[in-house]
Write a structure and sequence with these properties.
mainly beta; Immunoglobulin-like; elongated
Length: 108
């Protein structure tokens, strides 16, 4: 992590991130029919701040969702967790992505 860059970023009074959740590819099949019902949780510091729509019966979901998320701490990574929705049981975990917000350019 570049300390000079972090210092420069911390001069901004607040942060928000514009998100375009596009799609997923080749997700794990967790349902008995050979598909999944995926959705994505966006998290900061183990707190869910946004949940995508659920896409039913697909391993290649297309969300095409746009939204804006507030960022309290630019040094805290944004974590995306993908789950398979289940009506009667606990949702199945499909995977995680971690985004280092300090690598993004302000205003982009």
């Amino acid at each position: 992590m570049n300390l000079q860059r972090i210092h420069r970023l911390l001069q901004y009074p607040f942060f928000q991130i514009d998100v375009h959740l596009k799609y997923g590819e080749n997700l794990l099949a967790k349902d008995s029919c050979g598909t999944s019902d995926p959705y994505v949780k966006f998290m900061f510091a183990n707190k869910v701040i946004h949940k995508s729509r659920t896409k039913y019966k697909t391993l290649n979901p297309i969300w095409d969702e746009y939204f804006v998320l507030p960022v309290d701490d630019i040094c805290e990574p944004m974590i995306l967790k993908v789950f398979d929705y289940d009506l009667f049981f606990m949702d199945d975990y499909l995977g995680t992505a971690i985004i280092d917000l300090t690598k993004l350019e302000p205003g982009m």
